[in-house]
Structures are given as structure tokens and as C-alpha cells.
Amino acid sequence: VMIGIMIHNIPEGIAIAIPCLAARPDQPWLSFFMASISGLAEPLGAFFALMFLRLGAPISSSSMVWNIENILAFVAGIMIAVAVCELFPEAIRQTKQNDWKYFWIGTVSGVIVMVVTEWYT
């Protein structure tokens, strides 16, 4: 999962930094700062979530494991819903007639990367 998040953060940082740099070419540090803040969202969120979960139960208790499993399942469902309801339709709208192969290459390669990284955990 960590590898998937790291791979995901690269295009996310680029997607944030390039528009900031285009809007303010005189301040390249601003685009770096905005991309860095965006990249810190996942680790900070994970830290605060673990602190919140540890308040109610000891680390080794089964209730904490149950809570983490349910939270991860909930977040995975949200991510799938966003991808299916928002990202895929937008990618289909933006795809030209002869460029469908790039849509499918990106989709299939993303699934393969996530499956392979899950096998090795």
C-alpha cells in the first residue's frame, strides 16, 4: 500500500505544481510549497487516525484491529466510488477517438501495480 501511495503522489504533486507554476512563474517556490503540502496530507492523516484509534483501545486489542479494518474498507470504497463516478467519466470525455489504448493501458497498468504490490506484503 505504501508503494501505491508513493507512486500516486508523484502525478498528484505534478498536477498541483504545474498549474501553480503556470499561474505564478515568478514564484517557483510557491508551486513546490503547494505540492509539498499536498503530499503531507496522507502521512498526517494516517498519524492522526492512529492516534484517534489508540485513544479507545490498546494497540494489541482486537477492537482496534476491527476499527482499522473497517476504516480501511470505508476509505477504499470512497476511492473506488470517486474513480468510477468521477475520474473514469472525465477520462472518457477527454479521450479522443484513436486514443482509447492509452486509457486502457493506464487503467490496466494501475490495477496490475496494485495487485503486484499487494502480493508482496
Describe this entry's structure for a reader.
- With 121 residues, the protein is an all-alpha fold.
- It has a domain of 64 residues.
- Helix 1 packs antiparallel against helix 2.
- The N and C termini lie close together (9 Å).
Number of helices: 5
- Helix/strand/pairing category: mainly alpha
As residue ranges, the low-confidence spans are none
Order of helices and strands: HHHHH
Strand count, sense and barrel status of the largest sheet are:
none
The N- to C-terminal Cα distance equals 9 Å
Oligomer: single chain
Bulk shape? globular
User: What is the rounded Rg?
Assistant: 18 Å
Strand content: under 5%
**Mean pLDDT rating:** 82
> In total, how many beta strands?
0
Determine the fraction of residues in helical runs and give it as a percent range. over 70%
